[in-house]
Amino acid sequence: MTSTAHARPPGSGGPPPDKLAFTVPSGRRRVTPVRVGREFRRDRLLPQLLRRAVLDDEGQQCVQVWLSAKDAANPAARALLDTEAGTAVHLGQVLGDTEYAALFPRLIGYELDTAEPFLLYEPPRGSAVSRIHVMGAADQEIFTRDLMLALCLLEGQGLVPRGVSPATVLWDGARVQLWGLESVTRIGRPRRPWGRSPFCPPEQRAGEGTADPRDAVWSAAQVLYRLATGRPGPADRPPADLADHRKLDQTLRAAFAPRAAARPTPAQVLDLVAPGAARRVRVAVPPDETRPHHEAFEEALRLKRQAPAARPPRGPGSEQAGGEVLCPYCLETIRLDLTQLFVTDSRMQYKPLDLKGINNPVRRTDVMRGAVQKCTADPEFPAHYIPVPYLTYGRPLTVAMVGQSSTGKSHLLTQMIAAITDGGLEPFGLKWQSVNPEQHARFVRDWVRPLREGQVLDHTPALGMDDFARFVESLLITDARGQVRPVAFFDLGGEDLVRTDAALRFLLGVDALVFVVDPALALPLPQLDHARERWGVEVNRDGDLAFGTVLDRLPKNGGYLDVPAAMVLGKADLLRFQPPVDRWLSRPPATSLDPALVREESRDLYGLLRRHAGQAWLRPFDAIRRCTLHIASATGGQEDHGRYPAGAGPRRVLEPLLALLAMHGLIQVPGGAEALALGEAPALEAVPWEEAEAAGEAGEAGEAGDAEEFERSGGPGEPERSEGGKLQ
C-alpha cells in the first residue's frame, strides 16, 4: 500500500500506510517504507508536531515535523510550515556542503500539498540550551561565534529569525545548530508579535516597525545572558548586573538596547569575537548569478523608452463608431436596441420587455440594469443575449487571457474576478458592480464558490473549429473620478486562432492581454519534473504557441505592439521555494501601486525566465512596449486526490490586472502609466544623442559667455526663475 501522505503513528486510528512519498531538496521524488515513533510538540504555542522516524529504504534516521489534518486546515499553520520548508530548502541550496551548513537543520525532504503536510530533517545535532543551567566562559565564546555566524548567513539572504531562544538553539559541546526556521521573516517586512519575553525584542513584541537583522541580536544576547547567569534578563533594557560578566559586557552591552537602531549588527558582534569571520562568510556564499539578466532587462526597457511613444490608451467612455460595441459572444458589432430587450420570468425564460409603461426614472434604470438585449448581428450564431449595461457605458475594456489550455488560465481568471468582488480594488479608488446580477451570481455559483471550497475546476471545454475566444465575465468598474467602464474578460485560445477577418477584428479591439506562463512547460528545473510526469507534459524550449499566434496577428507601431500587457508566471506555488519566486509569492496583496516595486518584480521574473527558459518565453515582453511581469498562484498549492487540501488560497492574482488598469488610466500612479511599465528615463537617456551633443556645444559657449559676464559684473546676479519641469 502506498500513500502520498505521511505514515500515522500506531494507535492514531486505522492501520498506518507503509510507504512515505516526498520531494527531496533537489526536486526528485522519493518513496520509501517508514517506521515512526511517538509524537510530541516542541512548543505548545505552535501547531507543528514532531516525531522520530526511520526511512527503511536506506535505514536513514530522521525527524518528521508535521501538521495534523485539523491543524492543516488552518491557512496560518500551513503558512508556518511553508516558511520553515522554504527557509530550509534555500539554506541548503546556498550553503551546500560548506562548513556553515551544519549551523542549521539539514532537510531530507518535504510534502506540503497533502491533507497532513510534513518535513523530514536529519536528526538534530545536540540538545536545546534550555536544558543547560550555566555555560562556561570558553564555551560561551564559541557559542557566541556560531550563533552570530548563523545570524550573519541569514542576514546575507535577507532573512531575520524571530524565534531565537533557548528552545531553538542547540549545542553539542562544540557547535551551535539553530532551529525554529518557521519564525523566519524577510528584512523590511512589518513586524508581528512573536516569541516570549525576554527573548522577543521590545519592537517585535509590540509589532512596531519593520523586521531588522538586529532584532535577532537582541534575542541572541538574551540567550547568552541566560547561559552566563542561569536566569532570564529584563525584557526591555540591559541587565543591571551586566558589568559583573566582563566578556558578555564587552561583547554585547549594546545588543540590549531597547531599539534596534542602537544595537550592533550580527557581523559587528561576530567580528568582536572572531575578527575577519564576517568577511569569510560573505566570500563563502555563492555569487549572485542574476546580474547579467537584470542588466538585459534594463537594456530592454531603455530601448522601449527610446521607441516612439505608443498611442494613448482609450479612455473611459470612448466608443466605436455610432455607439457600437463588440458582442462578447459572436464578436460582431452591435448597439443598444430598445425593441430587442428581454427579462427573465419566474421560470427563467426570456420574455420581451416593454419600457413604454415604466415612467419612473429610478424604476426604469433598475429594470434596465437587469435586462438583456437579444443579439441578431450573426444570424448563424446560436441565440444569445447581452446585458444592457454592457451597451450603455461606452466601449468596454476587453481583457484577454492568453495561453495553452493547460496553463491554469481559468483558475487564475476566476480568482482574479473573485478578488475584485471581495473588494480588492477599493484601496485603489475603484468600485465594481455586476453588469448583470443574474449572470454574475451564476458565475460565482459555478466557478468561484467551488474553487474556494477546494474543488478543482473542470478543464475549459474545447473551442469549436471556428472559435478563438470565449467570453467569461464582465463587470462595471467606477474609477476615482466617477467614470464607469465595462470590463470584459475573455479566455483566448491563441493556438486556435484561425486567420480570418473575424479573428483579426477581435484582436484589434482587445485593450489588454494577460499572457499566462506555465512553469512546467517553460522551466527545465528538477523540482518541476514530478508535475510534468503527473500531467504528461514536457518542457517546450520554443515558448507557448498561443503567445506567438496572438503576437503575429497584431500590428506593430514603431517596432513594438501598443496594447498594454502583463505576463504572469502562473502555478507559482510549484516554485514557492525558488528564488525569486519565494520572495514575491510570500508578499501580502498590494494595497497601493508602487511603480518601482512593479518594475522590480518584472526584472526578477524576466531574469528567471531568461536564465532558465530562454528568450522564446519572453517574446510578449520583447514585442510589446508596455508589458509588466508578475508572479501569481491561483490556488496556493497543488491538488491532492482531486481537491486542494486546505482550499484554494490565491496569492497575488490581482496584481497583473491592477497594472493593466493603471496602464489604461483607471488607476493613477506616480510618474503616470508609462512609468509603471517602462520606468522614468534618466536625463541623458531622455535626450537623443545628437541633440545632447549639440546642447553640450552650446552649453560650453554659454558657459564661456557667462564667465565673462560674471567677471564684468563682479559677482553672481539674481538667477532667472522659470516654470521648467524635469526632463521627460
Descriptive overview:
By secondary structure, the protein is α+β, with helices and mostly antiparallel strands. The protein is built from 24 helices and 24 strands. It has a 7-stranded mixed beta sheet, with helices on both faces. It has a 6-stranded antiparallel beta sheet with strand order 1-2-3-4-6-5, with helices on one face. A hairpin with a 4-residue loop joins strand 3 and strand 4 (60-66). Helix 3 (137-156) packs antiparallel against helix 7 (266-273), helix 3 crosses helix 8 (277-284) and helix 9 (291-306) crosses helix 19. The protein is elongated and about 95 Å long. The termini are far apart. The model is unreliable at 1-16, 313-322 and 686-728 (pLDDT under 50).
How would you concisely characterize the structure shown here?
The protein is of the alpha+beta class and 728 residues long. A hairpin with a 6-residue loop joins strand 5 and strand 6 (118-121).
**For the residues shown, what is the average pLDDT?**
85
What is the number of E strands? Answer: 24
Helical stretch tally: 24
Please give the alpha-carbon distance between the first and last residues: 67 Å
- Kindly provide the radius of gyration, computed on alpha-carbon positions and rounded to a whole number of angstroms: 31 Å
Give the helix/strand class.
Answer: alpha+beta
User: What can be said about the biggest beta sheet?
Assistant: 7 strands, mixed
